[in-house]
Amino acid sequence: MKSKERGFSTAFALTVIFSLCVITLSFAMIVNANEKKISSYKKAFDARKNANKILFNIEEKLQELKEYPSDIDECQILSLISMECDYEITVKDVSTGINKKFVSPEILEDEGVRRYMTLNEEAALTEYGWINPRFADKTVLDEISLDFESKNAFPLINNTPPLNIHFMTDDFIMAVLGYFKIKYREQKLEQIREKLNGETSSKELAKILEVSESHAVFDLIGFKTLFWKISFETDKCGCSAVFAAVPQKDNQKKIDRYILVEKDIAHKGGSL
Fold it and tell me: Residue 61 pLDDT > 50, yes or no?
């Protein structure tokens, strides 16, 4: 009888020990998994914090663009912000194009504009930009007026020229000049390409086009980019952000400040 009891006790003890080992192992695995998760989260948090710091510094540096009469190319922006980021940066004008959501049917139905959009497809279009009431779809303006009620819709609606001539292709310039019925467009395009530089003023451009400085073409064509897309990639994450130029309320041909309006930070291993 004692032998049976001893055997039962030994089996029970082994079962208990085995169960405790399983529990201990499971607990250790859970702890290890949690530690990895916490470590991964911390790395993601640090990566996001670093990216946000870079974006803040870029936004601060972009304020210097307010003093530039023209935004002539991406290299100009790269040289301005390169000291704020130790990684490879790409810069792109994303507002010099046709925004089909806002622009009036009259422009979209213009033969030259339609031909330009057909030949250039997606390159001709943009999803970024303020709404210029002189060229906007009336339906859009009415809807915004209802949304804002009696409040001012600025800066969403403003008179800043949405197109930067420095980033317009020859075909795009020709389409816009054609829309405004400007004569001898090919010869004038040649002069634009010959004389256009970072110091070119609307007065000089008006002389080339043989129109007055108050001509409606200057409500559409300007020398500043309104929305910049800036991207960079660190060893831990990729970041893409869009900065917008907010015009002065009393003088909408000039820029008051640059603001961050969109950002996407993706940790290498998942979005943050």
Answer: yes
